[in-house]
Amino acid sequence: MARKRWYRKKAEKTLGRKLGPDEIVHHKDHNPENDDPGNLEVLTKEEHRILHFRGKNALYRQRRKKNEAKIPLDKG
């Protein structure tokens, strides 16, 4: 649990705001040890479920349909 809070806090600091209760921090390379900002992105719980169970193409199709962009943590 402490580790989970660590990358949530890191994401909040990078974004300059608190994460909502429905937002999670996803490790793009699926390695929870890699907390590099370029490897992290904020997703809703629904988006995270879609990503893991249907694949990233399904997630991006849903975002296009909703006209929403992902929230990457790297500002570069």
Describe the structure.
This protein is α+β, with helices and mostly antiparallel strands and 76 residues long. The chain has one domain. It is 46% helix and 16% strand. The protein has helices at residues 2-15, 45-54, 56-66; strands at residues 23-27, 40-44, 71-72. A three-stranded antiparallel beta sheet has the order 1-2-3. Helix 2 (45-54) crosses helix 3 (56-66). The chain is globular and about 30 Å long.
Describe the structure in brief.
With 76 residues, the chain is of the alpha+beta class. The chain contains 3 helices and 3 strands.
Structural topology:
Blueprint: H1 2-15, E1 23-27, E2 40-44, H2 45-54, H3 56-66, E3 71-72
Antiparallel strand pairs: 1-2, 2-3
Helix pairs in contact: 2-3
Could you name the key traits of this structure?
76 residues; alpha+beta; 3 strands; 16% strand; globular
- Terminal Cα span: 29 Å
Structural class: alpha+beta
Got a strand count?
A: 3
| Strand line-up of the largest beta sheet | 1-2-3
Largest sheet: 3 strands, antiparallel
H/E element sequence: HEEHHE
Put simply, the count of helices is 3
Helix amount:
40-55%
Overall average residue pLDDT: 77
Integer count of domains: 1
- Global morphology: globular
Radius of gyration: 12 Å
Detail the poorly predicted runs: none
Assess the beta-strand content as a share of residues: 15-25%
